[in-house]
Specification:
Elements: E1 11-15, E2 21-22, E3 35-39, E4 44-45, E5 60-62, E6 69-70, E7 84-86, E8 91-94, E9 108-110, E10 115-118, E11 131-133, E12 138-142, E13 154-156, E14 161-164, E15 178-180, E16 185-186, E17 201-203, E18 210-211, E19 225-227, E20 232-236, E21 256-258
Parallel strand pairs: 1-3, 2-4, 3-5, 5-7, 6-8, 7-9, 8-10, 9-11, 10-12, 11-13, 12-14, 13-15, 14-16, 15-17, 17-19, 18-20, 20-21
Length: 266
Amino acid sequence: MCDSTTNRINTLQFGRGNISGQIPAVVGDLPYLEILVLEGLTNLTGYIPSTIGKLTHLRYFSVSKNSLSGPIPPALGMLKNLVLINLSFNRLSGPIPSSLSQFTQLSQMYLDHNRLTGRIPDSFGTFTVSDLDLSHNLLSGPLPKSMANMNYTSIDFSHNMLEGDVSVLFGKNKTVQEVFLSNNKLSFDISKVQFPANVTSLDLSHNRITGTLPASLASLKYLFQFNVSYNGLCGKIPTGGRLQRFKASAYLPNRCLCGAPLPACK
């Protein structure tokens, strides 16, 4: 699509077609491109060309649901005007480049359903993004402490190999609403965590979390999705809120949780 004023190409969009081959490096020679969307092209293979980093006007970049492989090029961090980046559902591998934290306008980042490895970069605690999805990868190690400085709306780090304490993601003054951390190796005392009042979805299942569920969970009046099963939790489930509305499967198995919807505490 061309801009009617400049007669320059500002949009390049293909989806669910029979396009095959690789993303040509010359796509980086379209300096006025603002939208680059190549989605659902299962025969689109090869690497993401680093020349895309030259598209300084780019605001929306999505290459989701293709068959792309190789590393994420660090040059993508040069896209200062990017609002959305979606690299999900590919075969991308290697570490997440720390340069991806250089986005200043970014609202949404989706790197999920790939084969990314290594740790979440420390620099990810220095930029602002509303929705961050790193799920279904091979990421490992602890979360960087710098993430305590961030305010998200939605976080999905599920189905990785992350370890340690993630309580830095929470706090009374945080704005986070959706948190999905299931199927990792997280280990921390949940009784010491302060959950923000606006949380709507919280999935901490299939980890190594210990302690008792804090009474503050009962005050989350917007909570409609909740799961802490397959952990090492103990004690009585807090009452007076929405926690009794969830099925027993949201709590089992655990070490010694009790109280509705589970059997009464002895």
